[in-house]
Amino acid sequence: MSGRKGTFLLAHEATMDTTDPASAKMNIHVVKNTGTGELIGLEGMLAITIDASGHSYEFNYTLPEK
């Protein structure tokens, strides 16, 4: 987080038709206005990729200028 300190909340929602695993959709985002300390104003999305090598995570975010 660019060396900044603070906390924030993520919300995770997912859906999938149990008869069609390819229908899975996942949305993980920073809950608006939950950034504290130096993370006030944080916005972003977390992507989880699952493949043969396991799980990987990519967090795309923006922070206001200090």
What does this entry look like structurally?
There is one protein chain. The two termini are 13 Å apart. The protein has one domain (10-62). It contains no helices and four strands. It has 66 residues and is mainly β.
List the domain count as a whole number. 1
Distance between the termini: 13 Å
How much is the radius of gyration in Å?
Answer: 15 Å
Largest sheet: spatial strand order: 1-2
Q: Can you tell me the overall shape?
A: elongated
Structural class: mainly beta
SSE topology sketch:
Elements: E1 10-17, E2 20-30, E3 43-51, E4 54-62
Antiparallel strand pairs: 1-2, 3-4
Short description:
The protein is mainly β.
Task: Name some characteristics of this structure.
0% helix; mainly beta; two-stranded antiparallel ribbon; 66 residues; elongated; 56% strand; 4 strands
